């Protein structure tokens, strides 16, 4: 017998009293929609979807769930790629999408205060109006900040600025018991006792529900330029990345694409990129507050490219041209999905080992007859290996996929890498966790989980559960 309670008609009524009848739904289409995310996992429909509008409502929902031992799965926009938001034990899908207010842009303290359902693209738009930048920039613009914080999302600006964790200064969160805690604040420094805030960031909705966040902002650089560079090998591209760093230029983005990805983007967007005839490409983006600053960086980058025998360099200096190239990079997950059945591995390795990882991944692709397109946040060592079915038949593809994923993860771990650079463990990567962390670390994590959630009602079945 399950240790969990079911959502009975009585519980449904009490939940509707908390959030209002229009904010609970057991309509088939809502259950279906809230049972999937962007991973390739099968649907796990919840018994009920609940849409709270305030911290008080989230707290009351959790008090009731705690009393009845009902599993609750927090959800943002469900753009996650690791199945983290899927209600695998049924119960309530707690969608934070209606808590979507940008509460404050504080120009004196350079902080934003937001509710968890705010979409990253909306925060970017709002901060820009103030001449400010919230640097984390995960590839999916419609992800929510609650989801970004809970997965410690990364993105293309990781090389220069870091990841979501580096910008979260304060959190309000609801514990599985329903108690509300407030951590940090508009503080740049905070060395007071254990950092619970850092435990909650990246905990994939298993420790607490984020209901408000205080995020650090930076002044937005006024100018940017982007260079698109073909190479005749992955290794030449990767060595160029190291050389750029050695010459003390820190691009805000440095992305790697193989030719297969360039061709796939062209097919999907129905337009050509400046070149598609070489095995490997880098996108190098620099920023600064004056034209002169940009020129100086481009000059150094140009010198490196000449020294490294790059085959060409296409400079996009207008916003429109840069946008065109970024669209090509950002569309790739959707583009591959449009033409093949796919899965993905989001390993991160030390930056200098990227060529070794890519060579290992290419050997795996050849061995198993799949397409593996390695898209690198080359500046920070995070490589998204998109595994596409290619011509494999209905029996071979599902039977070899776990082996392919396992091999890619092994390649990364042997180089001192990690199984997830930014998408999280969720459901899809939990079987590989032991191999990276070992029993002692996982036991410590289990104890932490128990301290936050002794009844294991918050997002059960994830990470190591
Ligand atoms: C095309 C594409 C490109 C992508 N590119 C990137 C990228 O460059 N970098 C990157 O990091 N990710 C990327 N992602 C993955 C995804 O967008 C991120 O993981 C994002 O952070 C998920 O946000 P979400 O609101 O969709 O969260 P969801 O998918 O809804 O949830 C993700 C996890 O967070 C938990 N959660 C959500 N909200 C809360 C909350 N308020 N409190 C507690 N827990 C919560 C959920 O339980 C779940 O475990 C990409 C996805 C796609 C489809």
Radius of gyration: 23 Å
Assigned CATH architecture of the domain at 102-219: 2-Layer Sandwich
Approximate helicity band: 25-40%
Cα end-to-end separation: 18 Å
The CATH topology of the domain at 102-219 turns out to be: Uridine Diphospho-n-acetylenolpyruvylglucosamine Reductase, domain 3
Strand content: 15-25%
Name the overall outline. globular
Biggest sheet layout: 5 strands, antiparallel
Task: Describe the model.
- The protein is an alpha+beta fold and 465 residues long.
- Among the domains are: 102-219, 2-Layer Sandwich (Uridine Diphospho-n-acetylenolpyruvylglucosamine Reductase, domain 3); 223-332, 2-Layer Sandwich (Alpha-Beta Plaits), CATH 3.30.70; 340-414, Alpha-Beta Plaits (2-Layer Sandwich).
- The chain contains 15 helices and 18 strands.
- It has helices at residues 9-19, 28-33, 55-68, 120-129, 145-151, 158-161, 196-200, 234-246, 259-269, 291-307, 319-330, 332-339, 354-368, 396-414, 433-452; strands at residues 24-25, 48-50, 72-75, 92-95, 102-106, 111-114, 132-133, 168-174, 180-184, 209-216, 218-219, 223-231, 253-258, 280-288, 314-316, 342-348, 371-377, 382-388.
- Strands 5-6-10-8-9 form a five-stranded antiparallel sheet. Strands 1-2-4-3 form a four-stranded mixed sheet.
- Helix 1 runs antiparallel to helix 3, helix 8 (234-246) packs antiparallel against helix 13 (354-368) and helix 13 (354-368) packs antiparallel against helix 14.
- The longest helix is centred in the last third of the chain and has 20 residues, at 433-452.
- The structure holds flavin-adenine dinucleotide.
